[in-house]
Design brief:
The chain is α/β, with parallel strands linked by helices. It has a single domain, classed as Aldolase class I (TIM Barrel, Alpha-Beta Barrel), CATH 3.20.20.70. The chain is built from ten helices and eight strands. The longest helix has 18 residues. The structure holds cytidine-5'-monophosphate (C5P). The site of cytidine-5'-monophosphate (C5P) has 14 residues, from strand 8.
């Protein structure tokens, strides 16, 4: 297990590719993240890879349903002992609380407004509050309900920190080292900027997993943020 506050996004179709990424990054990053694609394709096999690595398991399955169903789903995932498990904050406080009760050892992590949504898209689905304000409201509500971590964009992390205080783990995707491609992420910050803004853990995928030398790419980011 590494010490850099990075969660490597293990998003791939191939289990052999995932195995290689884990081998290349396990001594650098503190955390490995399994999202929906990898979980649905490789389930327990992928989780086993992370558990064997010694890194923290971040299970990013974004639960969103009625509280009773989320409680059941969270209880079913308890056997993997994830350090972090994501739920959608928009599911409401009762749903977030149900996940927290089902998994008391896990940092139930509330995902606020997805970084792929902007104010116009939110209006299209009937949410007329600006995205930034919605993020802060959802973070406060989820923390009140027992969430111990929040996912938000680096651009909102400062406001969320002021709202929820210092004990909550703030996790930010949308992180790109200077000079690398933003891919489909719209509003990005560099790792140093995101940490300086108040993030505790940076979710980084393609800038590392898409690099010609994965180990070197991860190490370069870890060194860049080390003094912070
Ligand atoms: O490759 P990249 O660094 O863009 O990967 C970002 C990861 O963070 C992906 O696994 C993506 O699903 C996840 N994520 C995100 N934006 C959010 C929540 C999660 O990019 N708002």
């Amino acid at each position: 297990m590494g010490t850099a506050p990075i969660a490597i996004a293990l998003d791939s179709r191939e289990i052999e590719v995932l195995r290689e990424w884990v081998a290349q990054t396990r001594e650098i990053a503190s955390t490995l993240k399994i999202g929906l694609e990898t979980f649905y394709r490789h389930g327990e096999q992928a989780i086993h890879l992370v558990r064997e690595s010694g890194c923290d398991l971040f299970l990013d399955v974004k639960l969103h349903d009625i509280p009773n169903t989320v409680a059941g789903a969270a209880a079913a995932l308890a056997r993997y002992s994830p350090k972090y498990l994501t739920v959608h904050a928009s599911g409401g406080p009762e749903m977030v609380r149900a996940a927290c009760v089902a998994l008391p050892e896990t940092f139930v992590t509330a995902v606020t407004v997805l970084t792929s949504l902007d104010d116009q898209t939110l209006r299209e689905v009937g949410i007329c509050t600006p995205a930034q304000e919605t993020v802060v409201r959802q973070a406060a509500s989820a923390v009140e309900a027992g969430a111990r971590a929040i996912v938000c964009s680096p651009h909102e992390v400062g406001r969320v920190r002021s709202e929820v205080g210092g004990d909550i783990v703030l996790i930010t995707p949308g992180v790109r080292p200077a000079g690398t491609s933003a891919d489909d992420q719209k509003r990005v910050m560099t790792p140093v900027q995101a940490l300086t803004a108040g993030a505790d853990l940076l979710v980084i995928g393609r800038p590392i997993t898409g690099a010609a030398n994965i180990y070197s790419a991860a190490l370069a980011i870890a060194r860049e943020i080390d003094p912070i």
